[in-house]
Specification:
- With 428 residues, this protein is mainly α.
- 69% of the residues lie in helices and 0% in strands.
- Helix 6 crosses helix 9, helix 10 runs antiparallel to helix 11 and helix 14 packs antiparallel against helix 15.
- It starts with a helix and ends with a helix.
- The relative contact order is 0.06.
């Protein structure tokens, strides 16, 4: 067993890095999501059986695509009783890469983009497009998608099942749309890519703050879209992702603890990414066709321009949030604006805005709303309210570093309260 452990580690690494690419190509070759998913798992099972004996192939992804295609075709033949292969069983070896599965490198490289446009087809409901793409293109679990959506997991699962059935029954083509059809399809794709990036930039659950595989994949997809269709909002989204991702090295400590924006070591920010993102913002803004991603990128650019937290131009950020709220109103944007107002005008002003959002029933189950309220109450010395809001945020948090951060805040509140009570006693 020990001798095969390195191979098992290699198979696991290939699964993490390439399984979604393999799946995308298998969907193109086999024409069915469920058949391709089964083929994907069969291919990795074959790898676990064969690679320890035969060695890791020179092109693991090509091998896996070939293996998956072979297994799927064999299985479909036998199930349908069409020309059964007499000597081929479920665990038959796949020793040679099938040229038919890997003949067109350019087509293989486009499979992820082809898949995301298929998942975002207008025939699907908007929420189903996002859920299906996050599941199939990026491999997020139903629970992770539900966290991003603030939606029950069973509801998300049903959306995914219905979306797959719709693609199959309506024979939705597996292709990148023509240039003429691209603009109307772009908004859904941008939304999906941004949700993928957000799951990578601030993981909804788990042991890590960030999932670099997802944020990196979202940026790669963003670059492909900009190359394919350099519309202002595509430019704005890519700029936003680059500017936010530029802070990656400063967002956690060496031990993996969360570091808030104001406390980050800005010398660790990636200046090349900031420069690229800033150029894209300028290019997008020059079009004078303002959209939500472009404005969010401009907000991220203001943060990137500040050499230290105290130098942040919060008045400009509030103004940008005002513009964003006009073209894309939502409670989350209101919350972000309220935090910016608190930084410009003081915590009481921001707290009043957050309380208004919560009082009308919005964001009651959104942990960041309660965390923001807790922070402003803490700054105002309203300790009991701060504690209650931190506890509510902690109850909603699913990411371990975030939970530890909130727990530290609660300890700090308790310690500070003890000090104040002790001081009062001595003064009295």
């Amino acid at each position: 067993m020990a001798a095969t452990d390195p191979i098992h580690e290699t198979v696991n690494a290939v699964y993490l890095s390439d399984s979604r690419r393999v799946l995308a190509t298998l969907i193109r070759l086999l024409g069915d999501f469920d058949v391709a998913e089964e083929a994907l798992h069969d291919a990795f099972r074959a790898a676990l059986e064969q690679w320890p004996r035969d060695g890791v192939p020179a092109n693991p992804r090509a091998w896996l695509v070939s293996a998956g295609r072979f297994k799927a075709i064999d299985s479909l033949r036998r199930r349908a009783r069409f020309d059964p292969l007499e000597e081929v069983g479920d665990k038959a070896d796949v020793a040679v890469v099938d040229p038919a599965a890997w003949a067109d490198e350019e087509s293989v490289e486009d499979d992820r983009l082809r898949l995301i446009f298929t998942c975002c087809h207008p025939a699907l409901a908007p929420d189903a497009r996002v859920a299906l793409t996050l599941r199939e293109v990026c491999g997020l679990t139903t629970e992770e998608i539900a966290q991003a959506y603030l939606t029950p997991a069973p509801t998300l699962a049903q959306r995914i099942v219905r979306a797959k059935a719709k693609i199959r029954d309506a024979r939705i083509p597996y292709e990148v749309p023509t240039r003429a059809a691209l603009p109307e399809r772009l908004d859904a794709v941008l939304r999906v890519i941004y949700l993928v990036f957000n799951e990578g930039y601030a993981a909804s659950s788990g042991a890590m703050v960030m999932r670099h595989d997802l944020s990196g994949e979202a940026i790669r997809l963003g670059r492909l879209l900009v190359e394919l269709l350099p519309e202002p909002e595509a430019l704005g989204l890519l700029a936003l992702m680059l500017l936010q991702d530029s802070r990656r090295a400063a967002r956690t400590s060496e031990s993996g603890e969360l570091i808030l924006l104001d406390d980050q070591d800005r010398s660790l920010w990636d200046r090349d990414q900031i420069a690229e993102g800033s150029r894209l913002v300028e290019r997008a803004l020059s079009s004078r066709r303002f959209g939500p991603y472009m404005i969010q990128a401009a907000i991220a650019g203001v943060h990137a321009d500040a050499p230290m937290a105290a130098a942040t131009d919060w008045a400009e950020i509030v103004g940008l949030y005002d513009a964003l709220a006009r073209i894309d109103p939502s409670p989350v944007i209101e919350l972000n604006r309220a935090v910016a107002v608190a930084m410009r005008d003081g915590p009481a002003a921001g707290l009043a805005l957050i309380d208004a959002i919560l009082d009308r029933g919005d964001l009651l189950d959104y942990r960041l709303a309660h965390a923001a309220r807790a922070e402003l109450c803490r700054r105002l010395g309203r300790t009991a309210e701060a504690r209650a809001s931190y506890e509510r945020a902690l109850a909603l948090a699913r990411q371990e570093p975030e939970r530890r951060f909130l727990e530290r805040r609660l300890v700090e509140l308790a310690t500070g309260q003890e000090r104040r009570e002790g001081q009062v006693g001595r003064d009295g």
